Amino acid sequence: MVDVESDGPIPGDYSMICFGAVIVEQELDRTFYGKLKPISDKFIPDALAVSGFTREECLEFDDPTEVLEQFTKWLAANCKGRTMFVSDNNGFDWQFINWYFHHFVGKNPFGFSSTNLGSLYKGMQKDTFVNFKHLRKTKHTHNPVDDARGNAEALLQMKEMGLKFCFS
């Protein structure tokens, strides 16, 4: 489960500020957190404010290549078989993770596809208007590890409700 915070709507023009990942399993204790130095001078103050960081703080964050290489190693050490990317808003989170991996590392260990958590729940409930967020236990704080953990909790609840999903 992955969550991204950024300072704008698209990668390249704007920057991924931080991201978090949680291995989906009962304990939810295997996590990754990366804070990345901006790659552009452009940023939208309101978008950045969601992350809770100032622009000055972000300028002191880590080199994106180093963070993504560390994340690649963490994924290899913590994931067996096919690595699957799941997020609450995969249209947003995936575009940043995919772009950053291809731009800074040369390939994306998640491959070419992602899964949207909300769509899984809508399909389970056979209702395109239903929302899964009541299944979270961890408060949605915009700390990407907290948010990924809450989404992983929801996915575990969906598994208990009958979703066929193989966890490592």
Helix tally? 6
H-E string = EEEHHHEHEHH
CATH topology type: Nucleotidyltransferase, domain 5
Q: Span from first to last CA?
A: 13 Å
Q: Which CATH-level-2 architecture?
A: 2-Layer Sandwich
Low-confidence stretches: none
Observed structural traits:
168 residues, alpha+beta, Nucleotidyltransferase, domain 5, two-stranded parallel sheet, 12% strand
Topology:
Elements: E1 2-6, E2 16-22, E3 31-35, H1 45-51, H2 55-58, H3 64-78, E4 86-87, H4 90-104, E5 115-116, H5 117-125, H6 144-160
Parallel strand pairs: 4-5
Antiparallel strand pairs: 1-2, 2-3
Report on the structure:
The chain is α+β, with helices and mostly antiparallel strands. The chain has a single domain, classed as Nucleotidyltransferase, domain 5. Helix content is 40%, strand content 12%. A three-stranded antiparallel beta sheet has the order 1-2-3, with helices on both faces. The protein has a two-stranded parallel ribbon with strand order 4-5. It is globular and about 45 Å long. The mean pLDDT is 96.
